[in-house]
């Protein structure tokens, strides 16, 4: 039984070089693909910047549905949301759903203006930068809100989830 369990695990080796500046670099990384378990296989490879960038597109598409529950499904159960247009920190699914129920009334559409992606490991990444929301009021009038953002993603159960999301209106000036 034990042999069968270990047969599905990847074998990976990495040598880490610590530089005098304190940064680390992986060298000599190699891994064997896993047989039969895509969720575990995904966790053995580092995500690409393109894969992490696509998570915002997924989130933006969920906004377009107008369904707060669909948006909240992209967040981990214990995620922290510091939203753009609310002073209240949201720390659980019910609070995140509540925020998006109100936010989605404005039919938000987000556009990334500038982004920086940091891959933290096989199961964590940060996407941070500037985005703009186009909001449409009940009267049909459109406004734009420039904001800064940070999404912290973690791979859990084979799915990338938002574990921390901070968004705040961009101050004017330097």
UniProtKB/TrEMBL annotation:
Task: Name the Pfam families on file.
Answer: CaMKII_AD
The lineage's top-level taxon is Bacteria
SUPFAM superfamilies referenced in this protein's UniProt entry, alphabetically = NTF2-like
**Keyword RNA-binding set for record:** no
Recorded coiled-coil stretches: none
Q: Which residues form the Calcium/calmodulin-dependent protein kinase II association-domain domain?
A: 49-170
Q: Where is the signal peptide?
A: 1-26
User: InterPro entries given for it?
Assistant: Ca/CaM-dep_prot_kinase-assoc (IPR013543), NTF2-like_dom_sf (IPR032710), Steroid_delta5-4_isomerase (IPR011944), UCP028470_steroid_isom-rel (IPR016887)
Keyword list, A-Z: Signal
Put simply, this protein is called: SgcJ/EcaC family oxidoreductase
Q: Which organism is it from?
A: Streptantibioticus ferralitis
């Amino acid at each position: 039984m034990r042999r069968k369990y270990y047969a599905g695990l990847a074998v990976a080796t990495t040598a880490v070089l610590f530089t005098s500046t304190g940064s680390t670099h992986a060298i000599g990384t190699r891994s064997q693909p896993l047989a039969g378990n895509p969720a575990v296989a995904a966790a053995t490879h580092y995500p690409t910047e393109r894969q992490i960038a696509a998570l915002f597109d997924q989130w933006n598409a969920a906004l377009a549905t107008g369904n707060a529950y669909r948006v909240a499904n992209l967040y981990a159960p214990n995620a922290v949301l510091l939203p753009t247009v609310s002073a209240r920190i949201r720390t659980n699914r019910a609070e995140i759903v509540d925020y998006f129920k109100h936010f989605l009334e404005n039919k938000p559409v987000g556009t990334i203006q500038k982004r920086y992606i940091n891959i933290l490991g096989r199961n964590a990444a940060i996407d941070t930068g500037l985005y703009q929301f186009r909001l449409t009021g009940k009267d049909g009038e459109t406004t734009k809100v420039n904001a800064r953002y940070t999404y912290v993603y973690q791979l859990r159960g084979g799915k990338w989830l938002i574990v921390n999301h901070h968004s705040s209106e961009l101050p004017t000036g330097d």
